[in-house]
Amino acid sequence: MPPRLLLIRHAMPEIEPAVPAERWHLSEAGRAAARELAPRMPAPAYYVASSEPKARETLREIAPTEAIAADARFAEVRRPPDWTDGDTYRAAARAYVRGERHAAWEPHDEVIERFGAAVADHAARTHRTLVIGTHGLALTVWLASRVTLDPGPEQFWSRLRLPDLIDASGLLLQHRSAVKVRFPSPCAPRAAWSTHVRSRCPKGAARARVARRSRGAGGRARARLWTSPPVPEKALIVATLTRANR
């Protein structure tokens, strides 16, 4: 079992309306932004990315000398290839992560099943930190199936950056008992903004700190994740986000 689980949303791609989004590559600005996450990566780590170029290229910029496995189960939610303007797409995406079904969009339960199975399969292969290069909709739908996001999935997805780093180690630790794990404060002094999630369990159960970091303007977001083994259907995240220098 890996000690940590890191989910990385890909960096900004080069948008090509005539090309399906799953074939987009990173822009030069996206590559530079991805490299800024490199100092936050623990060593050793096990890297796996979705089959989409922008996810794999994000991990390659972060860890240029590391082997990167590929797994199509970490790909973005399947949806119609027709290009729509940004506002139309974002409105549809927000409705989707709220739970609304769209014609020709991948059903939520299929996303949850494939993503969760892929996490379990790769976690079983390594004792190193598991780093997954993936996509905003897919990771949001999967996380929302494991924890209750407050504010909800719509706000969570909207606040994700390109790229973004979500430390979801607590989801691994929920499966352990009689283990006590503490990480140092994940918020570096110069971090632009972070989300802190602390897992509190009964005496003798797993305790951990997980964090979400992102590039962008200053500020800080805080959250608490309450869990109690055996794993409940959903844990609860209560988050308050504040930003400065906007």
Sum this structure up briefly.
Helices cover 28% and strands 24% of the residues.
Secondary-structure content class: alpha/beta
- Mean model confidence by pLDDT: 76
* CATH domain fold name: Rossmann fold
Sheet-strand content, in percent, reads 15-25%
| CATH-derived architecture | 3-Layer(aba) Sandwich
How many beta strands in the DSSP annotation? Answer: 10
Can you tell me the residue ranges where pLDDT is under 50 for at least 5 consecutive residues? 175-246
Can you tell me the CATH class? Alpha Beta
* Distance between the first and last residues' Cα: 40 Å
Largest sheet: 10 strands, mixed
Helix content: 25-40%
Written as H for each helix and E for each strand, in order along the chain, the element string is EHEHEHHEHEHEHEEEE
Number of domains: 1
The rounded Rg comes to 17 Å
The largest sheet has its strands arranged as 3-2-4-1-6-8-7-9-10-5
The multimeric state of the shown protein is: single chain
Helix segment count? 7
* CATH H-level superfamily: Phosphoglycerate mutase-like
Global shape: globular
Give a description of the structure:
Residues 175-246 have low confidence and may be disordered. By secondary structure, the protein is of the alpha/beta class. The longest helix has 16 residues, at 108-123. It is built from 7 helices and 10 strands. The chain has one domain (5-177): Phosphoglycerate mutase-like (Rossmann fold). The chain starts with a strand and ends with a strand. It is globular and about 40 Å long. The protein has a 10-stranded mixed β-sheet with strand order 3-2-4-1-6-8-7-9-10-5, sandwiched between helices. Helix 1 (28-35) crosses helix 2, helix 3 crosses helix 6 (153-159) and helix 4 packs across helix 5.
